[in-house]
Amino acid sequence: MKRYINIIGIFIITAVAITAIGCEDFLQEEVFTQYDPNAFLQDQSGVDALLTGAYSAMNVTGYFSRDNTFILGEFPTDMTWETGGGLNRLVVPIMQFNWDPTTSFFNGQYGNFYQAIARANNVLLVVNSLSDIDQNTVDKIEAEARFVRSFSYYMLHNLFGPTPIIEIPEGASLDEIEAIGKETPRATEEEYRAYVEADLLFAAEKLSAEGFSSRGNKGSALGLLTKFYLNNKEWQKAADAAQQVLTLDYSLYNDYTKLFSVEGENNNEYIFRFECLLGSNQINVYMPHAFPPNYPIQNNWINFGAMFRTYTSFYETFEEQDLRRQLFVTEYVPIGAVEPVRLDRDAEGKELDDVRSFKYVPDPDAIGQANGNDIPYIRLADIILARAEALNELNGPNQVSIDLINEIRNRAQATPIALTDFPTKDALRDFILAERGREFYSEGFRREDLIRHGSFIQQAINRGIAAEAHQVLYPIPQDQIDNNPNLEQNLGY
């Protein structure tokens, strides 16, 4: 059976739930329970259930997070790579820039985010039919749905560039919905930007700054808008959106070494995160890939053969006193051994490229591969460095950018920088890229940062890989191309 995920099927199933609400003459049946679907979707609790489903589809946790964050976000970069296990055969094409439209990881990413879009559109169709609910509540529901939708399109764009914008007209038949799924072409870059920006501006306006960082609120909408503008090089808009976030009630967590632990996850630095809960389908599966061979793990942990390694050259960009460096393992004594094993350099000083990131401090209560560490997607540190970068692009080296960067470095106990250290815009731009690497390693932003700075292809070439310019985008999955003849493939594939 084809695995083209059913973008059509997703929208048909969505439509069935919606059209059933209006099919008054079809299969009229006496209701013997209190859960009448027609009534269920006519009040806020029913729509909240649909909205929860949309968030669930958008959740970047578990192996979906591993694929997005590490395999697609870091393995093609100068930061992280992989060896061993059954996974290696699948990720070598990613690390070597030998991917093609049939490479397995692309279709899963494409389908998951379109499932979230379908569920968000479902909420938007239903919310318009609600009665006896005040307009502020309707606006909040719509704003959260549009946040889910815009986040999903944002993630798709980072991977593939503009993709089809799918909207289902109210009252559409199943045949019409199927045609939309099979015939909608890709949006232009201009259409994509206008659509996502409108969703995020609406969400930022209608949502309050209060609420959980695992749901859309004003802060997460403005934070995503900042990243959206930054990656699209709309520098003034990025600087302004970042400043709006900085006026909200967020603060840097005081101890970077605990920021990503279970102990530290309920912090005021996380603007938007994906919750991971033991016993649920939302888990963090990173640490089993980080443990070196025969590392002394707890009985309730597991060590995978597929190992995620950090390049020595990246590790050595940290100053010795930098607290962020403490979350790497460069030496350990294996089980049954007496002498320690080095992971950064051998006795002759040769780079081993085997440093291990323990950024997600192992969950003491983990169950096998399942750890409960939440996965942040937008942190205050990201917004601070985004504003510093945007202001440098607008004005060249300036004291505001320097002060913002030093907020991050001071928390890490790294040496503060001075304006006089950077005579040109290019010099400060290069430093910001390096600082983002030190701050956001193991968070999946390296690929998009390198692309924005025009360094993604060159850093691969520097490592001896025959990367080509068109590979700043991944290909549209072949299954999706086969399903929709109007879905144009990215250039070069």
From TrEMBL:
<dbReference type="InterPro" id="IPR011990">
    <property type="entry name" value="TPR-like_helical_dom_sf"/>
</dbReference>
<feature type="domain" description="RagB/SusD">
    <location>
        <begin position="369"/>
        <end position="493"/>
    </location>
</feature>
<keyword id="KW-0998">Cell outer membrane</keyword>
<protein>
    <submittedName>
        <fullName>Outer membrane starch-binding protein</fullName>
    </submittedName>
</protein>
<comment type="similarity">
    <text>Belongs to the SusD family.</text>
</comment>
<dbReference type="Pfam" id="PF14322">
    <property type="entry name" value="SusD-like_3"/>
</dbReference>
<keyword id="KW-0472">Membrane</keyword>
<feature type="domain" description="SusD-like N-terminal">
    <location>
        <begin position="71"/>
        <end position="230"/>
    </location>
</feature>
<dbReference type="InterPro" id="IPR033985">
    <property type="entry name" value="SusD-like_N"/>
</dbReference>
<dbReference type="Pfam" id="PF07980">
    <property type="entry name" value="SusD_RagB"/>
</dbReference>
<keyword id="KW-0732">Signal</keyword>
<dbReference type="InterPro" id="IPR012944">
    <property type="entry name" value="SusD_RagB_dom"/>
</dbReference>
